[in-house]
């Protein structure tokens, strides 16, 4: 296994870089669609969408921020709960999780496109190389993580937030696991 010497910028996906047979399955929402869809949300107190999210993202909170045009705030809510929020916005089966739990389904209405709204916020952050947090104060602890797939990357991010020094090791030249080497449709 080789230590991954890549700079942080190499670890970030580039929004809109997929073309041809690798094009995005669901196109990005434009600004008017974002506002329209975000304003359809009922911001439920008990938030069944949040309960259905495996990472616990506060869905009504980030959607409410998008409704007011606050993409930075929306990205902060998402990335604070899930550092891989940009990838999850694309690959998470939202139709059976958060969107499947949306109360609009009870009235035979279309659910809020939560995954696409999440993508809007996280793409905004990625396009600006903006993260809502940085490394915590050093604890003096060092951690080695074997495997630079999604779990290893998420673990490394959380440990860095806590102030631990982290070294990632992976058998492949590039980090990311299936997120880098291909996710089946």
Describe the structure.
With 185 residues, the chain is mainly alpha-helical. It folds into 2 domains: 20-127, Alpha-helical ferredoxin (Fumarate Reductase Iron-sulfur Protein, Chain B, domain 2); 134-181, no CATH class. It has 9 helices and 3 strands; from the N terminus they run E-H-H-H-H-H-H-H-E-H-E-H. A 3-stranded mixed sheet has the order 1-3-2, covered by helices on one side. Residues 1-7 have low confidence and may be disordered.
How do the strands and helices of this protein lay out in sequence?
Elements: E1 2-3, H1 31-40, H2 48-52, H3 59-67, H4 71-81, H5 85-91, H6 98-101, H7 114-127, E2 142-146, H8 150-162, E3 165-170, H9 178-181
Parallel strand pairs: 2-3
Antiparallel strand pairs: 1-3
Helix pairs in contact: 1-3, 3-4, 3-7, 4-7, 5-7
SS-based class: mainly alpha
CATH architecture of the largest domain: Orthogonal Bundle
The number of helical runs is 9
Low-confidence stretches: 1-7
Whole-number total of structural domains: 2
The helix content is: 40-55%
N-to-C span: 29 Å
Strand order of the largest sheet: 1-3-2
What is the C-alpha radius of gyration, as a whole number of Å? 17 Å
The name CATH uses for the topology of the largest domain is: Fumarate Reductase Iron-sulfur Protein, Chain B, domain 2
**Percent in strands:** 5-15%
CATH class of the largest domain: Mainly Alpha
């Amino acid at each position: 296994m080789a230590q991954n010497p890549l700079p942080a910028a190499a670890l970030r996906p580039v929004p809109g870089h997929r073309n041809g047979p690798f094009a995005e399955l669901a196109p990005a929402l434009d600004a008017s669609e974002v506002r329209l869809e975000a304003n359809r949300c009922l911001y439920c107190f008990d938030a069944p969408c949040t309960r259905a999210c495996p990472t616990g993202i506060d869905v009504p909170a980030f959607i409410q921020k998008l409704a007011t045009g606050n993409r930075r705030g929306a990205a902060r809510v998402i990335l604070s709960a899930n550092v891989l929020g940009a990838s999850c916005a694309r690959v998470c089966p939202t139709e059976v999780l958060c969107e499947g739990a949306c109360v609009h389904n009870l009235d035979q209405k279309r659910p809020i496109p939560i995954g696409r709204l999440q993508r809007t916020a996280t793409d905004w952050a990625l396009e600006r190389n903006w993260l809502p947090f940085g490394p915590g104060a050093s604890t003096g602890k060092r951690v080695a993580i074997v495997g630079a797939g999604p779990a290893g990357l998420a673990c490394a991010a959380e440990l860095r937030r806590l102030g631990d020094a982290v070294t990632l090791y992976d058998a492949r030249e590039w980090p990311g696991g299936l997120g880098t080497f291909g996710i089946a449709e």
